[in-house]
């Protein structure tokens, strides 16, 4: 039997108020819920209320094949099982280790925090590509994410993490409380490393697609995500639609993307997001939320 799960309500407010609070990054910290354990380019915390207000009323398994920081995943009122995936190997190992052995991850993070320096950072950056030990991969991944420039994950063509260290006076390297919440939330979640086309949803399952933005930064794994890949994703969505699978997708509001998803439900929202590796380029950008369904109150 599918487990019923809802957004916790520790502030004593109704669901719509909860959505508004979640959309505010500072108010989010007041909620007794798990939140993203890494910063991620293109993260959806600034439009989380827009996304949550547009999820289907009912669905079976929840899929997120571009999970990244998982901003929607941590907040969605899940009604059944969940399946997370991403092409980024280090990210997926980190999700799995937080799910399966969070105390070991926290212990190693304490060690990284104790030894943090520019020299140690550079050594850790090299180790991330060399080590095969899952706990070390997870702890290094989080450590580097919390201390690198702008929280950016970027790799070169060989897949090596190459972001310089950020200039933070006191980076929050160890957030034990949140990591333990994340571990509990991930307890029965399927987590895999692969591309979006390898998921196998069934009728009435719900998928949220958060691909790299069209015409913006996409160097998450060295392979890139250009027009060809966006077209492949749109074709995949049309096949899912024909199979009765529900999907929601967010992307840049460009003529190319609008053409790819012509005929689907589209709404434009404003989103504050990083559009490049330059830390001063946080801007309000137009973003599309695309769906192949409408809710009862929209009909």
Structure description:
- The chain is α/β, with parallel strands linked by helices.
- The chain has two domains: 15-87 and 194-298, 3-Layer(aba) Sandwich (Rossmann fold); 93-164 and 171-176, Adenine-specific Methyltransferase, Domain 2 (Adenine-specific Methyltransferase, domain 2, Orthogonal Bundle), CATH 1.10.1020.10.
- It contains eleven helices and seven strands.
- A seven-stranded mixed beta sheet has the order 3-2-1-4-5-7-6, sandwiched between helices.
- Strand 1, helix 4 (71-75) and strand 2 form a beta-alpha-beta unit.
- The model is unreliable at 1-31 and 274-281 (pLDDT under 50).
Q: What is the fold's blueprint, element by element?
A:
Elements: H1 15-23, H2 25-28, H3 48-52, E1 62-64, H4 71-75, E2 82-86, H5 89-100, H6 102-115, H7 118-130, H8 134-147, H9 176-185, E3 190-193, E4 206-209, H10 227-242, E5 246-252, H11 255-260, E6 265-274, E7 282-291
Parallel strand pairs: 1-2, 1-4, 2-3, 4-5
Antiparallel strand pairs: 5-7, 6-7
**Main sheet: which strands, in order across?**
3-2-1-4-5-7-6
* Largest β-sheet summary: 7 strands, mixed
Number of domains: 2
The coarse overall form would be globular
């Amino acid at each position: 039997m599918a487990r019923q799960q809802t957004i916790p309500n520790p502030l004593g407010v109704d669901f719509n108020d909860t959505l508004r609070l979640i959309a505010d990054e500072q108010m989010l910290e007041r909620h007794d819920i798990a939140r993203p354990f890494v910063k991620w380019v293109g993260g959806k915390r600034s439009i989380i209320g827009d996304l949550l207000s547009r999820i289907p009323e009912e669905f079976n398994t929840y899929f997120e094949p571009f999970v990244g920081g998982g901003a929607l995943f941590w907040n969605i009122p899940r009604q059944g099982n969940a399946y997370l995936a991403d092409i980024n190997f280090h990210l997926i190992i980190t999700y799995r280790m937080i799910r399966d052995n969070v105390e070991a991850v926290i212990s190693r993070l304490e060690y990284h925090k104790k030894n943090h320096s520019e020299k140690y950072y550079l050594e850790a950056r090299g180790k991330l590509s060399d080590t095969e030990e899952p706990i070390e991969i997870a702890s290094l991944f989080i450590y580097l994410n919390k201390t690198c420039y702008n929280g950016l994950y970027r790799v070169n063509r060989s897949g090596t993490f190459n972001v310089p260290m950020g200039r933070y006076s006191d980076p929050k390297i160890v957030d034990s409380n949140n990591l333990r919440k994340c571990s509990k939330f991930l307890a029965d979640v399927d987590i895999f490393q692969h591309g979006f086309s390898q998921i196998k949803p069934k009728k009435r399952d719900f998928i949220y697609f958060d691909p790299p933005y069209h015409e913006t930064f996409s160097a998450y794994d060295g392979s890139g995500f250009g027009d060809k890949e966006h077209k492949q994703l749109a074709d995949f969505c049309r096949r899912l639609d024909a199979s009765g699978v529900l999907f929601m997708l967010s992307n840049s509001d460009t003529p190319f993307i609008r053409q790819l998803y012509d005929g689907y439900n589209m709404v434009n929202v404003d989103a504050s997001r990083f559009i490049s590796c330059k830390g001063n380029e946080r801007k309000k950008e137009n973003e599309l939320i695309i769906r192949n369904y409408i809710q009862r109150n929209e009909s």
